[in-house]
Amino acid sequence: MSVLTPLLLRGLTGPARRLPVPRAQIHSKPPREQLGTMDIAIGLTSCFLCFLLPSGWVLTHLDSYKKRE
After folding, report:
1. Could you give the CA distance from residue 24 to residue 22 in angstroms, rounded to a whole number?
2. Strand, coil or helix: what is 43?
3. Which runs of consecutive H residues, i.e. helices, occur in the chain?
4. ∠ at Cα 47 (46, 52), nearest 5°?
């Protein structure tokens, strides 16, 4: 590595450090209706069925995927 490399890199990244970074104005409000126990149970069950069940099935049948027929 050359002695001039840090100076060249500093020259390339110097102007980028002075650019203003735009900030997003994100505000959240409290929910209009509170979630009930049944709503949470339905949401967790649907997440389990949609994501964990198929991946679990693939992992249990991984040996049959490895076999060549």
Report:
1. 7
2. helix
3. 5-17, 37-47, 53-60, 62-66
4. 115
Render 18-31 in DSSP notation, one character per residue: TSPPP---------
Give the pLDDT of the chain (69 residues) as one tens digit per residue.
677 777 667 766 666 566 677 777 888 888 889 999 999 999 999 999 999 999 999 999 988 878 776
Fill in the amino acid letter for 47. Answer: C
Structure tokens at 26: 């994100």
pTM of the predicted protein model? 0.46
Closest CA to 60 of 49, 48, 52: 52
Alpha-carbon span 5 to 11, nearest angstrom: 10
Instruction: Kindly state the tokens that stand for 51.
Output: 């994501």
